[in-house]
Write a structure and sequence with these properties.
single chain; Methylamine Dehydrogenase, Chain H; Immunoglobulin-like; four-stranded antiparallel sheet; 0% helix
Length: 398
């Protein structure tokens, strides 16, 4: 009897629902959840697309590297695009719906939040003094909670009063907080990446009523994204080990950087049946997991980042078993001189990339799928080791 994680599941859907995925190279991908068809390049996005939401026949994409198209409103029937300029050099980052026709957008390099009307597409107001470098955020009844990690230099969770349109509190969490989620009851979960390459990832837990930090859970790695489903928080370290899991009720760390529940985590969303969609940029996949974290189906998508789902998956037929997921293993990490790569295919190329995408070194695996590389010429930092469709992250220290 095979466990569901080792079983290929064919999904038969009752409606032509879709997922919309940012290809981080600059285009929009549509996944038809009825047919399983992946439609790449349905719309051209701005520079550095970073966040996406779906509502009422439109997707809204925030582009962090575009001034003239900081926000794009895309009709998913016609693929027509409306562009909105928000501010010069604002570097807009994340977005949330305040209402059915109003968006809240973080402007990372302007240290502000922008309120945008979706009909017509226009800027309504700006809330200054939110920083440094506001990134992702969450909403409670009267407040926006904004992770402001200063791009690695700070540790502010900023609370913004949406009634007065002003900052009401700044809460000190851990270094490089990047995202935050609300459990819908009484606590906020803040993702802190820590100093770059130092394996300092953690989750700060905030009491929503008092604004006090009540606990700090260590995950390790370099997490940046978060999604809460039922009593679990899924924390994405999309360029590293993968997805970590903590319970929101008991605060137990179920999976950390030493044993991620699955790879990926560059983007999350939950469909209306509670299935979890996960982007895995390094392996070029969007995968769907049920409420027991068992794999339902995976889609091949180039460079998947943030995603948005309209509808749900329903009706599951279990078919033949498939092999367990393969992993590329690199040790030791951190390292200062030599790394050993295992788990590659025999004779497969081994490539080492820095965070800008430059290839810094390469080798070929031997007949056992192993390669040994020197890191003596690599500057201190974080690198991704890639072989075929597999990848792993390493840290080089000096």
């Amino acid at each position: 009897m095979f466990s569901l994680s080792l079983i290929l599941l064919h999904l038969f859907l009752v409606a032509a629902d879709n997922a919309y995925v940012i290809d981080t190279s600059g285009s929009l991908v549509e996944i038809d959840l009825l047919s399983g068809t992946v439609n790449p390049g349905v719309a051209v996005l701005g520079n550095y697309p970073n966040d996406i939401l779906y509502s009422d026949g439109f997707v809204y994409v925030v582009n962090s590297g575009s001034d003239d198209s900081a926000l794009q409103r895309i009709n998913v029937e016609t693929w027509g695009i409306e562009n909105l300029a928000i501010g010069t050099g604002y570097n807009c980052w994340g977005e949330k719906f305040l209402s059915s026709d109003t968006l809240l957008i973080s402007a990372t390099l302007n240290n502000s939040l922008i309120i945008v009307s979706t009909e017509p597409l226009s800027v309504l107001a700006e809330i200054p003094g939110v920083g440094p470098c506001p990134e992702w955020m969450c909403l409670t009844e009267d407040f926006a909670w904004v992770a402001c990690g200063g791009w690695g230099s700070d540790n502010n969770l900023v609370r913004v009063d949406l009634t007065t349109m002003a900052v009401s509190d700044t809460i000190e969490v851990e270094v490089n907080c990047q995202s935050v989620a609300y459990d819908g009851i009484n606590e906020l979960f803040v993702v802190n990446s820590g100093a770059y390459g130092n394996n300092e990832g953690s989750i700060s837990i905030i009491n929503e009523a008092s604004g006090n930090v009540t606990e700090n859970l260590i995950t390790g790695g370099f997490p940046s994204t978060i999604c809460i489903r039922d009593n679990k928080a899924y924390i994405g370290d999309g360029w590293g080990p993968g997805v970590y899991v903590i319970t929101t009720d008991t605060h137990e760390v179920l999976h950390d950087s030493s044993n991620p529940v699955f790879t990926g985590g560059t983007g999350f969303d939950i469909d209306s049946s509670g299935n979890l969609f996960v982007s895995d940029t390094m392996n070029g996949q969007v995968r769907v997991y049920d409420q027991n974290d068992q794999l339902l189906i995976s889609y091949s998508v180039s460079n998947p980042g943030a995603l948005a789902v309209n509808g749900c998956l329903t009706g599951i037929e279990i078919n033949d078993p498939v092999p367990a997921t393969e992993y590329l293993r690199v040790s030791p990490t951190p390292t200062s001189s030599i790394i050993t790569v295992t788990g590659a295919s025999p004779g497969e190329g081994i490539l080492v990339y820095d965070l800008t995408g430059r290839c810094m070194d390469s080798s070929i695996s031997d007949e056992s799928g192993t390669a040994v590389l020197s890191t003596n010429n690599l500057p201190e930092g974080i690198y991704t080791v890639v072989s075929g469709n597999l990848s792993a992250r390493i840290t080089v220290l000096r």
